[in-house]
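agent> fetching stored inputs for the acetoacetyl-coenzyme A docking request
agent> found them:
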Amino acid sequence: MRLQDKVAIITGAANGIGSAAVQRFVEEGAKVVLADFDYQAGKSLENELREQGYSAFFVQVDVADRKSVDAMVEQTIERFGEIHILINNAGITRDAMLTKMTEEDFSRVLDVNLTGVFNCTQAVVPHMVANRFGKIINTSSVSGVYGNVGQTNYAASKAAVVGMTKTWAKELGRKGINVNAVAPGFTLTKMVAKMPEKIIEQMQSVVALQRLAEPRDIANAYLFLASDESNYVHGHVLQVDGGIMM
Ligand code: CAA
Ligand code: NAI
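agent> prediction call returned; pasting tokens
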């Protein structure tokens, strides 16, 4: 029970890595807010978890919309009274080669993957400061670390998340708040399922472990960084990528 009675907001909780994280967090005793755009998947996961006796609460949110984020945080406080953990996991891709990328696709990816992380963190931090305790985990990507063909917008957003993580580590450490990032490798979710088969094979061939990640592999890294076991890990970017050489 590494997260006994901790209140955790997980964005992008309804699918993929987020839903695997929700499962791990409730198993470890956390009360979890499932913050996601996807109403159907979010509600159905909430119902499933409640039937198993876990404390889970779905709130529909668009992380790119500050008003929507503020309302989500308010509902969390009404429900649970405090917030200990924030996992900034929501993210999208809109891949295209640089010369073909539209302004709209560039902006939307930045709005969700970068401004969304800023919005959620800024809304949650005052509640953590009041407790002098918090764990913030941001989701970067190997694309943000190495760059990736067809991902100008996405790689920029994920590299920016690393910059914000290191900045917040410096600003918030003295207030008892740990800030770290996870940079997952290619992970078997809907996001990767959209890629051309040939490129998935190419990516798998450059992973030393010779397999793509399962969502649970990434969820376990979130769990480590959310637990007391990582209390002296701060401003770190944990690559969970099977040893990728992109
Ligand atoms: N490495 C090197 N060259 C590549 C390449 C790669 N990974 N992918 C494409 N190219 C080359 C192609 O061979 C082609 O070369 P030529 O012009 O010489 O023929 C050129 O780039 C254009 O490629 P396409 O014909 O595929 O161009 P397109 O406009 O039809 O499609 C694309 C472009 C949308 C980017 C498509 O290639 C694609 O979807 N690629 C996958 C992008 C990707 O890896 N996304 C990751 C999604 S998962 C994720 O983002 C999670 C995470 O954090 C890692
Ligand atoms: P996914 O597409 O399976 O799930 C993403 C979730 O985010 C969905 O439930 C979706 O509804 C939600 N979401 C999207 N936009 C939102 C918004 N504006 N507001 C609230 N919720 C929103 O994706 P996956 O693979 O689980 O990705 C999770 C995170 O991991 C993302 O940040 C992604 O960029 C990152 N990542 C994924 C990798 C992969 O290979 N799958 C690799 C590296 C990083």
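agent> quick read of the result: The CA atoms of residues 66 and 243 lie 36 Å apart.
agent> awaiting further instructions
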